[in-house]
Design brief:
Blueprint: H1 3-13, H2 19-40, E1 44-47, E2 50-53, H3 54-69, H4 71-94, H5 97-123, H6 128-131, H7 139-150, H8 155-161, H9 171-181
Antiparallel strand pairs: 1-2
Helix pairs in contact: 2-3, 2-4, 2-5, 2-7, 3-4, 4-7, 7-8
Length: 183
């Protein structure tokens, strides 16, 4: 794990301590990714004997970024991205016209709404994206890290993102300083 990724994830986790907010982010990120690539899947190209969508081509730079931040998590995201890109191509093959654009709008709205609910209801804070626009790209890494943690992979990642239910953003640091101040 690179030091840059570690620092970015620590900052991201400060806004995402409640596991229920994490679940809302899983739903939101899946919906947003699928919603974003859905209309881009209307344009398909043949490359090396495979059908590739414009969505896949445009997703490549961010997929490479995730692989560079952390190869293992990036590989997990890449695997899911392939599934979602294939699902988007399947959907555009069967859903047309207003129904496709309605599905696109619903996915985007539900994706943003689920994350907003996670922050307002469970976390009681504003989305980190408002303070740090670069956090837009960390959400999928956070979700994949949560999956790896649930499966028991990458203990160093689990230590970085484990839930913290303390009311103080740096609750463990506060507790340690309190213990040292009393004899």
């Amino acid at each position: 794990m690179s030091e840059l990724f570690r620092r970015q994830m620590i900052d991201y986790v400060r806004y995402h301590r409640d596991p229920r907010n994490g679940l809302m982010h899983v739903i939101g990120i899946v919906f947003l990714f699928l919603g974003a690539v859905l209309p881009l899947s209307l344009w398909q190209f043949d490359a090396f004997g495979l059908k590739i969508s414009l969505g896949a081509i445009l997703a490549l730079p961010v997929l490479l970024y995730w692989l560079l931040l952390d190869a293992a998590l990036g590989a997990g995201i890449l695997a899911f991205a392939v599934l979602f890109l294939a699902a988007a191509m399947l959907i555009v093959g069967h859903v047309h016209g207003i129904a496709l654009w309605t599905l696109f709008a619903a996915l985007i709205i539900l994706g943003f709404a689920s994350q907003a609910v996670g922050h307002q209801v469970f976390e009681r804070n504003k989305p980190s994206l408002l303070d740090h626009p670069a956090h837009l790209w960390l959400g999928p890494m956070f979700v994949m890290a949560k999956l790896y943690m649930a499966l028991g992979f990458r203990p160093a990642i689990a230590d970085l993102i484990k839930p913290d239910w303390s009311p103080h953003p740096n609750g463990s640091e506060q507790l340690q300083s309190d213990q040292h101040s009393h004899p």
